[in-house]
Design a protein that fits this description.
Chain A is mostly helical and 325 residues long. Chain A is built from 13 helices and 2 strands, in the order H-H-H-H-H-H-H-E-E-H-H-H-H-H-H. In chain A, strand 1 and strand 2 form a beta hairpin. In chain A, helix 9 runs antiparallel to helix 10. Classes of the chains: A mainly alpha (325), B alpha/beta (327).
């Protein structure tokens, strides 16, 4: 188990290094950030001055080595635009994004699993057909459009929920969150639902196919032959078997919820990392982009590790070992 | 004669599929006395497993029991609600399945699966349920049952898993166990161990057995009586020695003839030509007629009625095998 974790962390290290190299040179190629930083009527001397200040006059490999040196000293670079530490900016915005992603994940689970179970256990029921039809819509409708429609319906026409912003936040254990107030939830619900829509559909489909497959297994017949109640058969025997693929996919999808909340955050003006990234890309703010990528990579690696550990809790046949398999 | 544990009368279980009605079980009658072992023999698709599941009340749509009666210790089971059936299943009526690799849930520990069987019918403490599970495991010959309880099914061999399944079936001392080919998937040596074990346990607890199998050798060694099924009907039944020694129905005769052990070395094995008919499109007369070497014109006209023979035997054939031919 320990060997497994260590091996995973080593892998994570190399993934981070590779990503940093790729993104660093990638953003270098896109364009010259100086033009984003100086006023339009700046003189050539002023431009050169800025270029020297930020080290853009150096050849690219020198810039990269300087950057690596900074990283080794624990300094991940300063945002060109904000002037403050890039990682600091990202971490400031991270709670908002994580909160959104968590809320979306919870919605996906509490809506997706029961609906999927129903559709899987009663495949010919009209309600099941309805669930499946809606899940196809969930898959195919573009997020931004659904977001706009949600705002239109719930904020503009019905006026039930606010359209933008995060609402009041409460500081708990040093983390600002809106999860603990009603007003916070009112702000959170629409963006979370928008972000979760695709995942709800995904969970419905996974749960349904898993339940259909599991309900035909001999162990289900045997459980029925033992005289167990349907609740126990579905809630324990079937559910525990189908949780393995669901946990895998949700784990991976949580990463993408965080990384690609960009669209939802933009539509609902949610002050998270996604919005920060979008601004950084528009302004070629390289330290910020590189920092974001590092944070997301670490997040993905951590999630995968947690998923693997959850596996062994769910499926006794999976044993985590340090050896190559 | 004591009141039978199980009395199945004219049972018909049909499956209503898109391609028509499949009469998997059509007019099956038999009884099982307390402590008796009935061998239910037949080829794949003859309806023997569906008969077993019908008794358990585990027929799912599109199938259902269309007529007939199943009485367990005098009480009618057909027409009961699911909740009423659940109170019977696992307590007075248990079932063991064919593939021990599939019948235990792979992600639940043995203790969970055994204790839930106890809790399904008795309101006892965790500890009492656990003790019962330990006892049951010891009873079926699993060494150090306390330790094995916390194992997962994949840590057991096939034979051990079947023992666990048998232990679960026996946990409430049911009046009847339906065993659906429980030794088919096992090695021959394990098979005979399990057979001996089951025989001993059922004799001890007075549990009656319906042993569903296609293996006549198993029936010969285990059963008191045998019922031979063909195309959803019982074509012959009677005491096991009589039926195997002097079969009356040509199908039974053919089945016994196809067992390699009985023929002389170098001699061609007897075989039944053709294959089992599709249950959706049975011939109007005797279902076995197209494959039967003894068929006469009357066989094609109508299905032969059940005829009573001497010594508690019954058969559905108008031109039965004579004693000289059978020998």
């Amino acid at each position: 188990m320990l060997a497994f974790v260590i091996r995973r962390l080593a892998q994570a290290f190399f993934v981070v290094v590779a990503m940093v190299v790729l993104v660093f040179f990638g953003t270098y190629v896109i364009g010259d950030p100086v033009w984003m930083m100086v006023p339009g009527d700046a003189t050539q001397e002023q431009v050169e001055e800025v270029r020297r200040t930020f080290g853009f006059d150096q050849p690219v490999y020198m810039q990269f080595l300087t950057f690596l040196g900074d990283v080794l000293r624990g300094e991940f670079g300063r945002s060109y635009v904000h002037g403050s530490s890039a990682i600091g900016l990202i971490l400031d915005r991270m709670p908002a994004t994580l909160e959104l992603a968590f809320a979306a994940l919870i919605l996906a689970i509490v809506i997706g699993i029961p609906l999927g179970l129903f559709a899987g256990l009663k495949p010919d029921h009209p309600v099941s057909r309805g669930i499946m039809a809606v899940s196809i819509l969930g898959f195919s409708l573009p997020t931004f459009w659904v977001g706009l429609m949600l705002i239109m319906l719930f904020s503009v026409m019905l006026g039930w929920l606010p359209a933008t912003g995060r609402g009041p936040v409460i500081s708990i254990l040093g983390i600002e969150t809106s999860l603990f107030s009603l007003e916070g939830w009112r702000h959170l619900f629409l963006p979370a639902l928008n972000l979760a829509l695709l995942k709800i559909s995904l969970v419905i489909r996974l749960t349904r196919s898993g339940a259909r497959e599991a309900s035909l297994q001999d162990y289900v017949k045997f459980a029925r032959a033992k005289g167990l109640s349907p609740r126990r058969i579905i809630g324990v025997h079937i559910l525990k078997n189908i949780m393995i693929p669901i946990v895998t996919v949700l784990g991976l999808e949580f990463g993408s919820l965080v990384a690609f909340s960009v669209v939802t955050e933009t539509i609902f003006a949610w002050p998270g990392m996604g919005k920060l990234l979008l601004e950084a890309i528009q302004r070629l703010d390289r330290p910020l982009i590189v920092g974001y990528v590092m944070v997301v990579v670490l997040l993905f690696v951590t999630i995968n590790l947690i998923v693997d550990i959850l596996y062994s809790a769910l499926d006794p046949r999976v044993r985590l070992t340090g050896s190559q398999s | 004669m004591a009141e039978p544990v199980l009395a199945v009368d004219n049972l018909a279980t049909h499956f209503f599929t898109r391609d028509g009605v499949v009469k998997s079980v059509d007019g099956v009658s038999f009884t099982v006395a307390p402590g008796e072992v009935l061998g239910l023999v037949g080829e794949s698709g003859s309806g023997k497993s569906v008969t077993g599941f019908s008794i358990m009340g585990l027929i799912d749509p599109p199938g259902r029991i269309v007529s007939g009666s199943i009485r367990l210790k005098g009480e009618e089971l057909v027409g009961r609600t699911e909740a009423e059936m659940r109170a019977v299943r696992g307590r007075s009526l248990a079932m063991i399945f064919q593939d021990p690799m599939m019948t235990l849930n792979p992600v639940l520990r043995i203790d969970t699966q055994m204790m839930e069987a106890v809790h399904a019918h008795e309101n006892v403490s965790e500890k009492a349920a656990r003790d019962r599970a330990v006892q049951a495991l010891a009873q079926v010959g699993i060494p150090s049952p306390e330790e094995r309880l916390s194992a997962y099914p994949h840590q057991f061999s096939g034979g051990m898993r079947q023992r666990v399944a048998i232990a679960i079936a026996l946990i409430h001392r049911p009046a009847l166990i339906i065993a659906d080919e429980p030794t088919t998937a096992l090695d021959v040596t394990i098979q005979s161990q399990i057979l001996a074990e089951v025989q001993k346990l059922c004799a001890e607890s007075g549990t009656a057995l319906v042993w569903i199998t296609h293996d006549l050798a198993v029936v010969a060694g285990l059963a008191d009586r045998v019922a031979v099924m063909y195309a959803g009907r019982i074509v012959e039944q009677g005491p096991v020695d009589d039926v195997l020694d002097r079969p009356l129905h040509p199908y039974t005769h053919g089945l016994i003839g196809s067992v390699p052990g009985d023929s002389l070395p170098g001699k061609r094995l007897m075989q039944i030509p053709g294959s089992t008919p599709s249950l959706g499109r049975l011939p109007p007369g005797c279902a076995f007629e197209p494959r039967c070497s003894r068929a006469v014109e009357a066989c094609r006209a109508a299905a032969p009625p059940l005829m009573q023979g001497a010594g508690g035997r019954a058969y559905r054939c108008i031109n039965p095998v004579s004693a000289e031919e059978a020998a």
